[in-house]
Write a structure and sequence with these properties.
The chain has three helices and four strands; from the N terminus they run αααββββ. By secondary structure, it is an alpha+beta fold. A four-stranded antiparallel sheet has the order 1-2-3-4, with no helix packed on it.
């Protein structure tokens, strides 16, 4: 019974906090600020064949996302490289 009361108290305290209100109302916790860059490797059958780069910027007008996907494959002894860029 004591643990149950502690859990109820923690839930009550969290739901009344400013952080919880911001989270549930789409406040600053979900809006972000500045910019963020993420890199990821692209693998096929355990071998690296390329990478993906995603850059996210929060602006007053909205969120801008720039992404680049690069991969290189070998087909019939010929290297083939492809780069895809997208800006939204």
């Amino acid at each position: 019974m004591k643990i149950f009361a502690q859990i109820i108290f923690i839930l009550w305290a969290f739901c009344g906090s400013d952080a919880a209100q911001s989270l549930f109302q789409g406040g600053p916790l979900l809006q972000g600020s500045g910019e963020q860059e993420d890199w990821m490797g692209t693998y096929f059958q355990g071998k690296k064949m390329g990478f993906t780069r995603v850059q996210t910027r929060w602006t007053p007008e909205g969120i801008e996302v720039d992404s680049t996907v690069f991969f290189q494959i070998r087909s019939k002894s010929i290297d083939q490289s492809t780069t895809i860029n997208q800006k939204t």
